[in-house]
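Example record for the data management plan.
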Amino acid sequence: MPMQANLGTSTMQAPPTRHSARPGDASSKPSSVPPTVAVWHAQPPEPGKNAQACADAHVATAASFDVAYAGRSSPRHWTNLGHALQEVGRYGEARTAFRQALRSAPQDSDAALGLADMEMECGRYQHAYDMFRIVLDKSPERISVRIHAARACYELGKKKRAKSLVEGWPQWTLDNDIAAELAEVLILIGKVRAGLTLLKGAPDWSRIGAHSLARLSSALAQSGRLKKARHCLALLPSPETVRSPALREEILAACARLALQAGNLSGARRFLEFLDTLPAPGICRSAKLYFLLAEICYHLLDMEAAKLALVTGRCIQMKAADIASPLMVEFSSFP
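Corresponding structural encoding:
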């Protein structure tokens, strides 16, 4: 079911997060699963069975089959496994798979970008930026990587660096998804008119990826373009139907931002109720979420909650900026 554009009276509750082994634990490593399980494909689950469990089993098992039976030494199979595990929200195991691919082939850009994109999805922006830097050092002409690196810089508070990464964008050839991501970055770094101009050329917004649409909606709402923000949200699935924890929270945050800008403070607060629970394993929530919560609580005159959210966001931001990424140390030795 698509998202409803009317956010004024919604009482949508954030769905519970799933918990499993933390990244780096022995139990978070990808395991070999017998290939006989890989039969649930584009079919509804049997009555009485959990649809999420069926989907998890299908996606992870198909990738595990690649790894276990087509050769563990191949980085391609580890990368495929990482993508499959990421798709179902098993971020700790996905991170382990991507790292294994990079250990097998440190120059594999696909594995590096897979890991970087997942770290962006999980809010680990410094780690993501480190991996984007590695790829850009080898291939500075890769437009999508420059855009993603620019967004990571924005999240880390490096606005000047973000602007430098997207210089020359009018000469770039972009597909729908990349155009939406660039428009989001341009709007965030203050080039609102340029971002909106870019969006006018997008022929089919329904072909833009869900993550890109959610982030674009937030950026548009933040800049006061509420009608366009609602249009983006209307193309997204309802959060309770999304199995990826990171995407689900991204959509809820976009709903909260739009509700805030529309003056629906209580609705905006309800959309962020998931921040009262622990994140899914492997996710480091963005400081921006807590800054948004602080802004909402401030307008609700709940100063204690606003202060707590502000302090939490600042702690996350400082940790992301100050701690050197172990990934950079581990994988930066390209010849």
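Summary line stored alongside the record: Residues 26-331 form a domain with the Serine Threonine Protein Phosphatase 5, Tetratricopeptide repeat fold (CATH 1.25.40.10).
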